[in-house]
User: Fold this.
Amino acid sequence: MSMMSHIAELERKHQALDKQIVAELNHPNKNSTKIAQMKRQKLVLKDEILRLKATLPTPTVH
Assistant:
């Protein structure tokens, strides 16, 4: 798996978690513990995405 496809997969997981969080927040019997856990997972994914993007070479413009 290339670095870009790995980052793309992490971004898809991040977006999916965001949708799950919104769905849980709108649920009448929302589970605060589950929401907090998903938010932590989302932050972990975001940190990993940013870390990986920082290792990519930056294109130079001449």
Helices lie at 3-26, 32-55. The chain is about 75% helix and 0% strand.
